[in-house]
Amino acid sequence: MTSELDIFVGNTTLIDEDVYRLWLDGYSVSDAVALRVRSGILEQTGATAAVLQSDTMDHYRTFHMLERLLHAPPKLLHQLIFQIPPSRQALLIERYYAFDEAFVREVLGKKLSKGTKKDLDDISTKTGITLKSCRRQFDNFKRVFKVVEEMRGSLVDNIQQHFLLSDRLARDYAAIVFFANNRFETGKKKLQYLSFGDFAYCAELMIQNWTLGAVDSQVDDMDVDLDKEFLQDLKELKMLVADKDLLDLHKSLVCTALRGKLGVFSEMEANFKNLSRGLVNVAAKLTHNKDVRDLFVDLVEKFVEPCRSDHWPLSDVRLFLNQYSASVHSLDGFRGGSLSVGPPS
Amino acid sequence: MPGKLKVKIVAGRHLPVMDRASDLTDAFVEVKFGNTTFKTDVYLKSLNPQWNSEWFKFEVDDEDLQDEPLQITVLDHDTYSANDAIGKVYIDIDPLLYSEAATVISGWFPIYDTIHGIRGEINVVVKVDLFNDLNRFRQSSCGVKFFCTTSIPKCYRAVIIHGFVEELVVNEDPEYQWIDRIRTPRASNEARQRLISLMSGELQRKIGLKVLEMRGNAVVGYLQCFDLEGESGLVVRAIGTACTLDKLSSPAALLPACNSPSKEMKEIPFNEDPNPNTHSSGPSTPLKNQTYSFSPSKSYSRQSSSSDTDLSLTPKTGMGSGSAGKEGGPFKALLRQQTQSALEQREFPFFTLTAFPPGFLVHVGGVVSARSVKLLDRIHNPDEPETRDAWWAEIRQEIKSHAKALGCHAVVGYSESTSICEEVCILSASGTAAVLNPRFLQDGTVEGCLEQRLEENLPAGCGFCHIPYDELNMPFPAHLTYCYNCRKQKVPDVLFTTIDLPIDATVIGKGCLIQARLCRLKKKAQAEANATAISNLLPFMEYEVHTQLMNKLKLKGMNALFGLRIQITVGENMLMGLASATGVYLAALPTPGGIQIAGKTPNDGSYEQHISHMQKKINDTIAKNKELYEINPPDTSEEIIGSPIPEPRQRSRLLRSQSESSDEVTELDLSHGKKDAFVLEIDDTDAMEDVHSLLTDVPPPSGFYSCNTEIMPGINNWTSEIQMFTSVRVIRLSSLNLTNQALNKNFNDLCENLLKSLYFKLRSMIPCCLCHVNFTVSLPEDELIQVTVTAVAITFDKNQALQTTKTHVEKSLQRASTDNEELLQFPLELCSDSLSSHPFPPAKATSVDYSSFADRCSSWIELIKLKAQTIRRGSIKTTVTVEKASPMGEGNFRNRATPPCASSTVGVVKMTPLSFIPGAKITKYLGIINMFFIRETTSLREEGGVSGFLHAFIAEVFAMVRAHVAALGGNAVVSYIMKQCVFMENPNKNQAQCLINVSGDAVVFVRESELEVVSTQQPTANCQPSCTGGEVTT
């Protein structure tokens, strides 16, 4: 006796969160069944393995059918085939677009192309995330990227509107899109200590301050591309290190302000020139695409590492950077914003 | 020109990409009604076209309005080649034709293609202007309302229940016409869909005409079925109950209950009829003439050649030997005469209803059923469907005579079905013989009932259990006792019915789903030989199904079955029988005896031991079940009344029911003592298997209940969460081990596993009950068994239920004990009477001889046949008590305000096979939904194999039903049923096809929490349905 066909269709589509998770994690039906058995569900419910198998298959089939709709979440809301309560719809979408930290760190800043997709096997082996799940996450990134890439308006809003994600998740996706678009290098060994959250934080600030959208909210690509003019302007910062007087003045301003407030004051004072040179050089190079990609590597090399070797506490770094950029305003010839970014160490 | 149909095509969305080059579609729409077609403009390059068309107007006869569906076809414009069809929408405009239903159909409909499934949606608005037409010869029956619901719809009152209406129309099946060889599958499917849609329209119109003739205004319990006879054609047939309904202005006007007739019963004289031979004479004769005939031609001639029943014209009295009831003597004559006058004018006093206004049902006799095997031949003249008509007429006659034999003049809970395999067709009909209160059947006034009711306060809740037949002239052997409730009338020891549990019935404990499952191998044969083989097998199957039901019922410690539905399915090389029913313990009937096992083999130590071990297991199971289903009948009273011949041994045992004391005794003395015990004889492995299989049925996990009736006896505090579902399973049998046992086991496992899966899937709803569990079996191919289940899971509040039940039991207990004493002598007398009246001692124990199975010696056959028949019709008896603890059951239900749930979001359309929605009030019926879909694929693997294909299709069917309901302004479908799900596959060719037919009533409901909760009495019946309705779709 073999089961040829075995289906269950509810007027309200049944969604089992646990099975959904297993499906998203890319487990095959048999693996999922094995995992469910291990979870003790058979004992709790008195079901048999065959029942579990049938149930799992059924859910997988449903998810498979839903997947097409999940690719364009607004469709899920308007479709008539599956009757799903709104709260469940939200859950389906949110979970579908959720990603693994380990995975996102691997692809963050990479071009979302076929080439990268081919490397997913390696990523899968490296991270222990199933290839299937890697593909889903990668395709999600790519899909979101494609949709919002050339859209005008706020990146986060666009993502939210087209994919109905929660605010938090939409922000994360904005970061992913931003990084992918600018191809920031994040995979270097030196950067391994940074989490996705760290990068997302940077991305948010950069979107706010460095993009076209920061200047004009009515242009295409406003939140994804860096403002070229701004980058050009950054060149002028060279003065800060090229002009000796200015450098000294800057240093004394910062030192005066921070005296007594910094645990690592002496180290700062001793290193100021190096640090300032490092920062300014990084900024000034940003007109070249290559250097934009290496932004984070450079920052870590030129600024974070020296700080770390002197054991700067985080609070001191923050104070220093704030003061560093604030003081510039009181120098002749400087107005307006400047970089205010420093990856937290 | 009595009608103007207006259609407007507003917009489309989510259309498929039809032009690969641009990834877009140039869509336009054709709107067709009858022979007229309109087109919209082409909306270029969009997947979300906004046509916003003008109003397309069709001026048509109302006859066409009823028959024809509105066809909307969405196409992709192509300059150079033929336009490609995207898909179609069929809209049945019937709901717009009666005044109280929907006034406009407006909403998003899925665009459906038989090859690709749903492809986007289209927004359509449809209206109808009807002109009054006083033409008395008209062919249309606009205005007659149709309901699938098998009870009086909630916001109506039955003024008169006229009775049975039936009709059938036949046609050639487009799939089998020559043209099918040259057209595409799509064209062929569409031709079929359209034809069936047309035929259902026509059928409904014709039935409507009959209703008008009877001066009714509605059909309740409308059941329409398709018989796909293959080569020989396509039959669409329908039955229903014609009624005159009144819209309720306020629920206070609910029908008063009138159970008048039970009074007369008191006067029953103990008739000293000298001829107590219950077996062979008198009323039992009609039982015998049951025909398992197959007749390719019309062996039965009727006066009228059309399928008209001409209810009002043919006062067919006394067919055959006259009514059995009359033979029985003066007994209950008064009552009978009253009703007979009303009913005998009708050719078929049948009612498709399964629940009735209070007082309508007076007595229930038992299940009556008839089957006949026919050979299909080509229908030569579709306009004169005589053969099919004659076939059904024959079966109905038989049912009628069975009912008479049970002393009943009517059949309720009536239904008909067919099973077709190649050119053999089994026609089946079944129902419950009953005595009805005539007052509802004629133009009498309902007010009369009211008064009557005041005079009599006989205990309700047991009247229907009282036997309608003459106890001295019983049509079958049965054991009678005095009613445990009123102590005045006789009741049988078990009661089988096809109806729902009457609201006022007193039930003890909870009910449960009971199924009998059976397979029988059959040689492959052609034509007549095949039909003969089937005919020969049928009685055995029926007999065995009933034995199984009886055994399982006893095993559950219950004494009545409701909602009994026996399905016999024929396949190439086997027959399958599946009976489902809801078992309950009726307080009015005696406690069921235990099951006693007896071995036939001469003394053999280990064998004896084995037997007693088994006996113990059975007794344990019964005890466990009693606990599980909370069956604690009042013990004391029962002892006194239940065992009129007190046995010392029994008295000494305190617990449980006396009948279980049997575990000590294994002797085979059936004629004395142990009168209640049900004896199973085991003399070979077959019988052993059977006993084993009895014990393998696993009860549902805790927190779950299941039943196949509308509601679960014993649970009355439903909460509002419902989940309707359909589950389909197909298994392939390995051809190696095809023995009856292996088959039975496979089939049994299939059903049990399916149930287990359901329990598992719905575990998040616990505590909950699966209601209206409806199993359908089909044998699509040689080694395939397909089981389809549709049911609804409803949550309930565990805490509230118990109390009500308890108080009630106590009450009835008290009443019982006070009455005991006076009655004591009667039972004694009765008992000795009935003792002597039984010609065969074993009959008394209703024993079923397991050893006597089938193919062994032919001499058994006659006896078995006889038994099978008797059991089938008759041995029906037990029923239950309680549940509706207080007469306020309904009230309680209402008061339980459901917490305002956030789920009442826009767009949700509930579906349920029940006639009501828990925690809500139906404010309006919008019309019948009756839809037929075909889906075909030539890329089965790509669509996820058979499971993926069917899963998607069923989901699409649900979606289309919901969309239609929403477009009518409704938010639920009640009495939903999937009448057909025919699935065929050809994996080698990567192809599959499936036909699904569903129906139900579109309604508007309002959550009770949204009504003023204060007075359940005044829920402003005309409360605006719009509150939830209209805006539904988005």
Helix content of chain A: 55-70%
Characterize the biggest β-sheet of chain B: 4 strands, antiparallel
Structural class given helices, strands, pairing of chain A? mainly alpha
Number of strands of chain B: 31
Provide the number of structural domains of chain A.
Answer: 3
Nearest-angstrom radius of gyration of chain A? 25 Å
Work out the helix count of chain A.
21
Q: Helix amount of chain B, in percent?
A: 25-40%
InterPro entries (chain A): FIBP
GO molecular function (chain A): fibroblast growth factor binding
Protein name (chain A): FGF1 intracellular binding protein
Organism (chain A): Ailuropoda melanoleuca (Giant panda)
Characterization of the model:
- The complex is a heterodimer of chains A (345) and B (1034).
- By secondary structure, chain A is mostly helical.
- Chain A contains 21 helices and one strand.
- By secondary structure, chain B is α+β, with helices and mostly antiparallel strands.
- In chain B, 26% of the residues lie in helices and 29% in strands.
- In chain B, the strands form nine sheets. A four-stranded antiparallel sheet of chain B has the order 4-1-8-7. Chain B has a four-stranded antiparallel sheet with strand order 3-2-5-6, with no helix packed on it.
- Chain B is globular.
- The C terminus of chain B is likely disordered.
- Chains A and B meet through strand 1 and helix 4 of A and strand 25, helix 13, strand 28 and helix 18 of B.
- Strand 1 of chain A pairs antiparallel with strand 25 of chain B.
